[in-house]
Amino acid sequence: MVTREARRDWLQQLRGAVYRGDGAAIVGLLATDEPLPVWQLIGDGVATALAHRVDGAAELAAGCDAALRGRAWIGDVELAEQLDGLAGTGPMPLLRPLAVDLDVLTEILEGDPLTTGGALDLRTGEVWPRSAIEYAEEDGSDVETPDFEDADRFRWADGDSRDGYRDMVEFIDTVGDARLAGRLQDAIHGRGTFRRFADTLGRSSQDELGRWFEWSDERKRGRARAWLTDLGFRVACC
Fold first, then answer.
1. What is the pTM (predicted TM-score) of this model?
2. C-alpha angle 212/217/220, rounded to 5°?
3. CA–CA separation, 227 vs 224, rounded Å?
4. Does 171 lie in the same domain as 123?
5. What is the CA radius of gyration of the chain?
6. Which percentage of the chain shows pLDDT scores above 70?
7. What is the crossing angle of helices 57-71 and 76-87, to 10°?
8. Can you give the pLDDT at residue 223?
9. What's the pLDDT tens digit per position in 36-94?
10. How far apart are CA 238 and CA 54, in angstroms?
11. Residue 186: which domain range?
């Protein structure tokens, strides 16, 4: 059985390799251990490995493609189609590549609409949180501030917590401990729901807390990918 520490270390290494665009490290991590079901993150890593023509990437792509299509969460099919195109097993989606970090993009797409939100630069892939935009517009320095009202360059997004709430509801259905599931049901009512939900998990089971973070990250990453696809873009491979 994989320990919680080993699981966390493997996931941290994978995230680092995907961020760096290290295709060889990605293939090594996926080939030596049974991968965690973080198929959105894995898929981005495999896409990088395919783009760099790393040995073994095509075989990993086939397994990831099947897992994504079988799970079919929001954003999964879009990623599977990109893998097909890169592997030469299907047509490449007619989407413009954009060098955007999906983890950062989720920060403006999801959360309290009073404090989150922002804009995506469609030229560079840079994500501007609302707070950074407000600071740039109020800053009196000589640094040129982008025109965030330029609709051809920037796409605005308002934060939204409804999808995150649905994630909690659906996650509870996967919890095998009936008493813990009941406590989680109580936790998702009232103010401070997200913090109370995580605190309840943490007090009861660190393993389930870790699984929740993996689940939540995957859902948010997939929704960000689908949002990007609707704009006519896909994540550019490093």
1. 0.92
2. 125
3. 5
4. yes
5. 19
6. 97
7. 150
8. 98
9. 899 999 999 999 999 999 999 999 999 999 999 999 999 999 999 999 999 999 999 99
10. 13
11. 95-238
For residue 108, which amino acid is it? I
- Torsion sign across C-alpha atoms 10, 15, 20, 24: positive
Evaluate the CA torsion angle 156, 162, 163, 168 in order and state its sign. Answer: positive
Task: Please indicate, yes or no, whether residues 89 and 106 belong to a single structural domain of this protein.
Answer: no
Is 113 in the same domain as 201? yes
Average pLDDT over residues 96-102: 96
Q: Is 137 exposed, middle or buried (0-12, 13-18, 19+ CB in 10 A)?
A: exposed
Same domain, 70 and 109: no
Which token pair is 50? 């395919």
Q: Please determine, for residue 1, whether its predicted confidence score (pLDDT) is greater than 60.
A: no
Would strands 96-98 and 233-235 be described as parallel, antiparallel, or unpaired? parallel
pLDDT one-digit tens code per residue, 120-131: 999 999 999 999
Asked if residue 99 lies in contact with residue 138, where contact means CB atoms within 8 angstroms, the answer is: no
Do 136 and 145 touch, CB atoms closer than 8 A? yes
